[in-house]
Amino acid sequence: MTDFAIFLIGLFWYAVFILLPGGAISVLMHFLLSLPMRRRDRALFFLDLVETVLQRGQPLEPAILAAAENHDRAIGVRFYLMAAHLESGLRLGEALEKEPRFLPPQVNAMFRAGEKLGDLKKVLPACREVLRIAPDTVRSTTHYMVAILLVFAPIAVFMIFLIMTFVVPKFKEVAAGMGVELWPLTQFVFAITPQITVFEILLFLSLICVAVIYIGGPGLVRWFQFRSVPVVDWLTWRIPWKQKQLQRTFSAMLAVLLDGGVPEAEAVRLAGDSTANEICRRRAQQVIAALARGVKLDDAIRAFDHTGEFHWRLTNATHAHGGFLNALRGWHEALDAKAFQQEEAATHALTSGLVILNGLVVALIATAMFGILIAVLNGMLRQ
Predict the structure, then answer these.
(1) Which pTM value belongs to this model?
(2) For the chain, what is the domain count?
(3) Sequence-ordered alpha helix ranges (H) in 57-91
(4) Which spans in 118-183 are helix H?
């Protein structure tokens, strides 16, 4: 067999065992990481469609059915399921309730509030604020973390398990046979070998859960939500940047409803429902109870934001011209900026912490291995 034939055979097996699996993993990662962005793009397409139809003064349901006749796969199958509900005679809000995973929960709730208001066009700006995209730095860092998880974390767990199970015992046998004394650090690392392996496995499983939540989105998270015990909503409210996003959603929807002439108590209730968060709904009920006692709206809103900034913003908005939404736009932009900053800081801290932590584990194992080699060489020199 010639050298060229051997080269071709080697190239073939390289393509089979390296290039093809690597390409398949890359395609799978791209598909998974782009799922949240595709869901957002489909929601934005639907908002554009609704806004265009309303501006033309056409009936909304027939226009959606006409758009569904194009059979564009980029819109997603849930759009066609929602259109099928419309075709059966349901109104838009009822069709969205039948297909809740087509739009984000907050946008679904805003559409229902818009139907009660009698003017969907007024809630569209608030819907767009909910779908505002995070900065590229946040998205790229999140994708980097998920990529590390999907590719390198399983390899790291496998390599640590392999070294600790098959390599380290052989070195220990050689050292014991030569009667050499191991370093204290080496003995310590070998003593905690099972704990290191279990820790890496638990860390990998935790990251898997984070990746599944990120890729699955709100539709997946809602499976773990219970009305009587809203654990997911409570955790969401406790995450700083999520809390600011919920405050922005509530504030934007409240401004839209107040500009539409909705009574204050009803506007607060609908704005709380628009957050699709039970904690926000309960705080909105506290605001409504304060309004029933005769408290002014800008004072009652303190129940929703104990920092007092929302109270100050809303007080200024009541005296401003051009409507509540325009007056509170700076408040919404400030909330977005703070949320993006906190999310970016948390993402970078988590990614850097994982890299440093895994580096420490690798450094401990490497130091222990070199400790055995040095001890064996010293024993050989003595002999």
Answers:
(1) 0.73
(2) 1
(3) 60-68, 77-87
(4) 124-130, 136-162, 168-178
Burial of 307 (0-12, 13-18, 19+ CB in 10 A): exposed
Q: What would the pLDDT profile of 350-373 be if each residue is shown by its tens digit?
A: 777 877 887 788 788 888 878 777
Residue at 79 is within a domain:
yes
CA 377, CA 175: separation in Å to the nearest integer?
A: 10
Long-range contacts of 93-101 (CB under 8 A, 24+ apart): 100/219, 101/219
pLDDT lower than 50: segments of the chain: none
Cα gap 180→182, rounded to integer Å: 6
- Select from 368, 325, 17, 313 the least CA-distant residue to 192: 368
Is there a contact between 200 and 365 (Cβ–Cβ < 8 Å)? Answer: no
Q: How far, in Å, CA of 202 to CA of 206, rounded? A: 6
At 84, the amino acid letter reads: A
Rg from Cα positions in the chain: 29
Round to whole Å and give the CA distance between 332 and 255. 11
Q: Which of 141, 143, 189 is nearest to 163 (CA)?
A: 189
* Residue range(s) defining the domain that contains residue 52: 35-103
The reply to whether 187 falls in a domain is no
